[in-house]
Amino acid sequence: MELADRDKQRQFELRKLELQAASARAPPVVAPRVPTPAFRVESAVKLIPEFDENDVETFLITFEKIASINKFPTDKYAAILQAHLKGKALKVFTELSLTECQDYKILKEALLTAYAVVPEVYRKRFRESRKYQSETYSEFAFRLSTQFKRWAESEKAYDTIAVLRELILMEQFNSHIEPVMRGWLIDQKPQSLSQLARLADQYLAVHQVDRNDKVTRVNQYKPGYGSGKPTWYKPGFSKPAQPMQQVTVEGNGKQPSSSPKFTFSSSGQ
């Protein structure tokens, strides 16, 4: 009896090993692939709000966030954006080359430049911000922080303390120079206070030379310049005589307003 039981147990173990070996040799079961739907530009265009010419920077920020959330391919950004352009923005788009139109970064930069959305504009908006009567202090604080962030980000200074420090120093420096020089310095795009100061000294030196040259050229047109003689001097001419003041002495006993000058001749009188 025990022998029969042991035989059955052995056969069971053998059968179990055979099944395990068979399952190990069997190919793995692969889950069926779900096809990814193809990206359609026309579908993506419908998710973007209408282009606002009065607030281009806000539109572009909104566009980029929607594109990121919906995982739009970055190489399709320009194609999606151009479908919303109008007015001046559409004119900018048509003036770019075909290669530039397909590059979202170039297109974005061209639009911001066309609408004068440059760092100096962001700075002025931040500095000139005032609380509206209709908004709460929390709303004003949010708007102020947004404007500061746009200014700092446009100067690539928002996340770097060293760059931000230079930005604040340069702004304070620019507030103490004349507007014409300030405009020229902004166009030079200095990256530090020391660069800004050197450019300001360069500007002053060049324009001081220009002023001296202009004064020299004006003086050269005056007769007598450089001859050691007065500028009124001309060969063959003498300095014009000053007109003599005529004095009349009235015989009515009244004293004249100024003392008369008398000329005596040598006729024997």
Give a topology summary.
Blueprint: H1 2-25, H2 41-45, H3 56-69, H4 77-82, H5 88-95, H6 98-101, H7 104-114, H8 119-127, H9 137-154, H10 161-174, H11 179-188, H12 193-220
Describe the structure.
This protein is an all-alpha fold and 269 residues long. Among the domains are: 41-117; 118-154; 169-225, no CATH class. The protein contains twelve helices and no strands. The radius of gyration is 44 Å and the shape is elongated. 8% of the residues are buried. The model is unreliable at 265-269 (pLDDT under 50).
Comma- or semicolon-separated keywords:
single chain; 269 residues; mainly alpha; 56% helix; elongated; disordered C terminus
Order of helices and strands: HHHHHHHHHHHH
Distance between the termini: 187 Å
Q: Flag low-confidence runs.
A: 265-269
Strand portion, in percent? Answer: under 5%
Helix content: 55-70%
Q: Kindly state the mean pLDDT as a whole number?
A: 78
* Extended strand count: 0
